[in-house]
Each structure stands twice: as structure tokens, then as C-alpha cells.
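Thread: Modeling a multi-component assembly for a lab meeting

Hi all, long-time lurker, first post. My supervisor asked me to bring a structural picture of a complex we are working on to next week's group meeting, and I have zero experience with this. I have the sequence lines for every component (686 residues in total). Could someone generate the structure of the whole assembly? Inputs are pasted exactly as I received them:
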Amino acid sequence: MREGSIRTTSFDVAALAGVSQSAVSRAFKPGSSIAAETREKVLDAARKLNYVPNSIASSLTTHRSNIVAIILGDLNNPFYTHVLQTFGRELQALNRHMLVFTLTEDMHTDDAIMQLLPYQVDGVILTSAQLSTRMVGMCHDRGIPVVLFNRYIPNTGAFGVRCDNPAGGRQIAEAFLAAGARTFAMITGDPKGTTSADRATGFVDRLLDAGIPRSAINSYEGGSSYEGGVEAAKAMMANDATPPDAIFGINDIMAMGAMDVLRIEYGLRVPEDVMVAGFDDIPEGARLPYRLTTVRQPINRMVRATLDLLNLENPDSSVDIASDLPIGGHLVWRNTIPPAKSE
Amino acid sequence: MREGSIRTTSFDVAALAGVSQSAVSRAFKPGSSIAAETREKVLDAARKLNYVPNSIASSLTTHRSNIVAIILGDLNNPFYTHVLQTFGRELQALNRHMLVFTLTEDMHTDDAIMQLLPYQVDGVILTSAQLSTRMVGMCHDRGIPVVLFNRYIPNTGAFGVRCDNPAGGRQIAEAFLAAGARTFAMITGDPKGTTSADRATGFVDRLLDAGIPRSAINSYEGGSSYEGGVEAAKAMMANDATPPDAIFGINDIMAMGAMDVLRIEYGLRVPEDVMVAGFDDIPEGARLPYRLTTVRQPINRMVRATLDLLNLENPDSSVDIASDLPIGGHLVWRNTIPPAKSE
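Re: Modeling a multi-component assembly
Sure thing. I ran the full set together rather than chain by chain. Output:
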């Protein structure tokens, strides 16, 4: 048998590291309190002896795998790459691991969860739009919390962490109105989700309140992607040779696609010829060619609220459901809406 | 006890679905041959009865978890988002799941693998640069293959799937030379990895062969990010008020950052005042404002080669190590290098 065989025990590791067996156990147990130096000693000894504890066997008794599943609907929007990075960092700090599921077009979220349940995940985070009440029930029966990120689905029993999307839509409408805009276009996202609809509702309601006629507000589907933003702007220009005063991209990546095509293919200046705003505040929208005015989604706070609702540290305690309330975003002024006109 | 208790067995599901128990087992077993209609019947019945098989228990006997671990070094480069999406799609088609680890600055790849081993993953894919021979040995002792994606680390015993980076660097040098460039700058990436160094070597060697003096080739560190590309271009302009004839961004995202700052802050035209090329062919570089000439990394082929080396379907058979050979990329001509000058 080779040195470092799989039969090495925690006793051997403790002996080599000069620590207690309990320290070995804590070094490998997520969230344990252990001095960094002691942990290093244990890991060094474990490496030398080729020792690894068997999490799978221990999860059979604890019914906890220390794995959180994340189901991603759309990585074409860089917002979700930043979300994934943030969850990765925060879950790692909690010594949890991420099982990542990227949904393909033909797969329902229910089927994805069905495939993840056998791993006894400690929680499920969803950024996709569809989910059945039945599936949420199945997770809850197993003590597995489900949190929808950047959306909610009414009456499913799942928590939904989100920015205050209607309020954000209203803020964009106000900024456009203050700068003198009177005709508008929206580029909308996923029609199945609540996020795009809520932002559009806030935006349109505020414009109607200000006396803008509904006929002065057009809407184009942009599918939540850069390419969708390009196509929506082209459809808008084909529809009417003069652009509206202001365009609200329901997310930044669509606003960026629209800006590029309007400037490069139609020779329009932003904001002189057409104002543009987005939503999310992805780092890409802050770059030199865009300097996009937008509503910042508080990703860090949303991620922490999600982890609070998953209640990983004390799964048997009750959850603070206040974390399910919408979190306020805020307007980030850059260059794509001019300052308010003074009367 | 509630309807749909955890004690429901595959026998109950088979009875309700009107199929055999073996069909139930196949419906949940990754890679099994089963008619889509039969699988749907089983899943419907399983949902009604709230039945889920316990993969964790079965992995104890098979020593296979159907989980592949992916350790990502850098999601700031969109190339890796596309890589993650491609692995997600391909692994799902094989009914495998992805445990994703995003490395933080202070964490060594060895520690990440140490944390993943207890899950009895079926393979490890790495896109980060550091890895010890000892850790590769630990994985191999457990029958867990390790594949480095878009890099290799000499003498570790791990496979390294990659594009032919020196050849790609040479192609860019030739395109610049043919268009009449005589002075050059490189914006380099991660100094710890092989990828940036190999591209730079191919580029510089080809220029030296063409009689370009080494003093006409400057190099700036860009850290593999958009922001790094911006800073490298600024450093270049601070160093010498006249730009070089041609800039090679060792990856597209750095080339994009450089293009933006050179055009917007220094008023230079691309390619009239300065030629630019990248490497990777990320979709972002093909967009209207960039139309970047670059070398396409064959992501789909690289992902399939990685999966071949992981040998998930027949872990006891030998691997075709030809998949470890560099895969040729090819030059994608767009707008940032003019056509060859005719003499």
C-alpha cells in the first residue's frame, strides 16, 4: 500500500501536526473556530499523509452537505457574473460550496431542482424566472430553504430578494423629466420575470403622473442581452426615424447595446440627441465609452439578505423574514442624462 | 406523517407511474438510456409523492458523486464566463453537476482542492495558475483526474488543455508586419501563468525574425482585466507621447480597455493612428465599438478535450492523452488591423 493511503485517520494527522484530534476535525469543519496557524499545521500534515475526511459520509448523519445550489438563468447579462462572484466570495467565507446550475433554454427550473435535491443541499438560490409552488413545497418538506434572487414569484412560498424596482423606475422617469424629455422608449427584459415588469411599471406610472400621454411612451423587447438592446434600438429607429427624447434600458447591458448602435450606426449623440439610462450599475456601464446613468442594485446587501434567509448557520432557528423586503437602490448620475433644466 | 414523506420508495413511484422500478432508477441515474416520455412519467410521479433518491448514499458505494469541480481564478475576464457557460451546458448534457470555486486573492489552489476532495468529486478543472505536484498526486491517488484549462504547469502530472498560444502570437505579429507596423507594444497578463508568456514569446520571436530590433518592442503589465488594459495604455502614453504602430493585447478584454482609453482620452484613431489586436475572440470584442481583430480560442473544442481527459463515462479506462496537445486557434480579421500593404 502506498504512503498516504485512504486509510489514514484523523489520529495520524493529529499526531503528525502535534494537535488534538478535535483540532483536526475543526480544521475541516466549515465555520469552526480554529486559529489560522493551527489550521495550517493540520492541513500541512493532512497533505503529507494524503488524508481527507469524508464529507459525504458525515452528511448522511447530519443531513447537511455544506453545499448551496445556485441556479442561474442567464449569464449573458454580466450582472449575474458579478452576482456569482459575490456569492462565491461570501459562501467561501462561510466555508460553504456552490453547486452551480446554468439553465438551458429547454429546461424548467423544477427539473434542475429535482436533480439537485439528491445532494442534500443546504439551500437553493434561484435567478431564473419559473418555479412551481409544488417544487418549493418539496424543498421545504426537506428543510431546504429556497430564495429567489432579483425576482419574486407570487404565491410560491419562496422568499424573493430584490431591489425596489418600481422605485428605481420612478427615479429614472424623474431624471428624464427634469432634463426636459417628453417622448420616451423602454427596452424591456424577460417578460416572464417580475423584475422587468416592475421597473417598467414604476417608470410609466411616474410619466403618466407627470401628464405624459401614453402614446408618447413606446416599448421594445430587448431580451435582457446586449444583442437584444441593439435589435430593440434598430426596431425603434425603423418604427420612427426621429428618436424619442429618452430611452430607458430596463437593464444596463441592453442600454449599452442601444447606445452603441444609435451612436455608431445612426450617428446620434448621447445625451445631446437622445438621453439613455439603464438599471443595475454593472461595472461595464461605468466604463469610458458609456458613463451610463443608472440605478445601482445593492448587490452586496442583496447577497447578504439571501444568505440571511438561507439561515445556513442555524438551520433550526427561525428566519428574519424582514430580509424578504425590497432593498432600496439609488440613482448613479453619470453622462447619459444631462443635469435638470432650470426653468 | 405528511403525504409525500421522505419514506416514499422507488416502488411507490414505479406503481404510480405505471413503470418498472428499474425505469425509476434509470430516470434518476445520470447518463442512463430512458425514453423522454417514461422519464417524464417517473418525474411526475416522484413530484406527486415527493420522492427523491439519495445520491449521497449511493455515492458512498460507487465512489462517484457525478460532481465535477471547477476552480475559477478570474471572472473579471469575460472569457471565463463563456468557459463556465460552455462547461455548464456540456456537463448538464452528461448529467453531471458543477461545484464552482471562485478563488479569492489570498487562497492557494491547493487549499481549494483540499476543500473539494471530501465531496468525492469525479474530476477537477482548474483555470487558475498555481498548483503543486503534491496536490495533483493526492487527486490521482484517489482516482480524481485534474485538468488545467487554458494553461499548463510543467512537471505537475496534470493535463493542460490549451490553444496553441505561441502560434497565435506569431499570427498577430505577421498581421501587424504585413500592415506596415515597425514599432510595437504588448499588454501582458498574469505573470504566473503560461498563457500570457507563451503568446508574448510567439509574438516577439516572430518580430525579431523579421528584423525588428528588441528596442522597438515595449511591454506593459495589464493584469488580464479591462481596467488593467486602460492603465497599461496610459502608462504607455506617459512613457512616450507618440504611440507605437501596433499594440498586442494578450487578451481581448485588455485590448478593449486600451482601445477605449486611446480613442476617448488621447483622441487616437484605430487602426489609422494605432493598430490593435487581442486574443481569445470573446463576443464582447466583436461588438460595434471594437470590431477587434484577434485570435479565436476554440472554446468548444477545448471544453470537449477537457471532458475527454476527465474520462467521466469510463473512469477505469485509459485516457487518450492526445487531448493534452495544444489546439490551433485562428486569426479573426475585423477592423483593428488594416489589410496588408501591397509593395
